[in-house]
User: Fold this.
Amino acid sequence: MINFAQLCYCIYYENYYNSFIMKNKKNNFYLMGVVFIAILGGLLFGYDTAVISGAEQALQKHLGLDAFWHGVTASSALIGCVIGSAFSGYFASGLGRRNSLRLAALLFFLSALGSYYPEFLFFSKGDTSFALILAFNFYRIIGGIGVGLASAVCPMYIAEIAPSEIRGKLVSCNQFAIIFGMLVVYFVNYMIKDGMPDEVLVSDGWRYMFGSEAVPAALFGILLFLVPETPRYLAMTHQDDKAFSVLEKVNGIDKAKTILSEIKAVTSEKTEKLLTYGLTVIVVGILLSVFQQAIGINAVLYYAPRIFEKIGGGGDGMMQTVVMGVVNILFTLVAIFTVEKMGRKPLLIVGSIGMAVGAFCVAFCDEFQVGGILPVLSIIVYAAFFMMSWGPICWVLIAEIFPNTIRGKAVAIAVAFQWIFNYLVSSTFPAMYEFSPVFAYGLYGVICVLAALFVWKMVPETKGKTLEDMTRLWKKRAKEA
Assistant:
């Protein structure tokens, strides 16, 4: 069996995998290696956004944060996510998809070290001044910018390099990596906390949680020097020979010629004006992002340990969070293995309905003071249906729904809205939950129903269509409008 080192060697040195191409017109091994490296950005996305779930209580005690600054500090990375995603289109179009991911890796690494030791240069260890709080939030915002970049560019990179018949499955793997990153950090946080005295957890334990991200961030940055730029970007920047080389390895010689011709036919210009294909495509992309966050999933993911401890069900809240992470992984696999069979729209509609049921059950349990395992299971059901639908499929659609020549800008706008609503949901959830869990989860349940109706009425099915097919579809709709 070929090991990981050989995989990296295979990606970098063409003469190593020539024998594979001679036997098979397309090199699936090469494609899987490239996608594996790209989805490490998704893993870091999940790792960075979920690390706060284990550290936020100890961090609050260490810094002496009141309710307001606790909410700001717990969600400060999301400010960076908005910034990173908003500018991702400029980076993706100017630097390229690959270099944008390299920049994201660097930001992840710097954020991990800075969050681990925010006293660096300007403060003494143990300082809890307001300036130190601002410094910590600054480092978290840097990481958030990396997350915003990765969240937009990783699925874009995979979609632009993957064959159309398995594109949905491969882009869904990015969501699997996001959830796996969350699961990994849940385990890391649990192992750091397990057996650690409270005073040590408050003084240093949270540091280890944030600092642990430096390892996967460094690995991601190094491995990105082994992957190619995407053929769509290469074609749009008039590097046809390089584009054909990548397409040949992924699709085989004959198919590569056809695909490159199709790409060139719809990318005669590097970029076009954002509204060239009408307003509807932009609105659909934005609403996909808005609904993915407005249904409230990240309120559960970010505050999971605290929620589980409050509603009971036995056991440690952190351990129950790990169990939820395992369930999330399994249901993300459901999406990966069904997205090319069922299509994008059916999965989103089924997932919305399942989430609504889970949210309403949580509200019911709180209203009638039902404790124990039922509310825990209801939250897990709520999260599981998200993971088989809105979690991966929203990213799939955002990556494939926009025409090639406006994809960078359009994805940036859609993902920026996603992070804006992520911040709104995450920052308002503690106050809503304290006011009334019934209101909070009842509201999320209603939004889930509205999300199902939106998908049914407005979202086109992209299963089996090439990215160039979507360009032609929106061009036709723009003319008919």
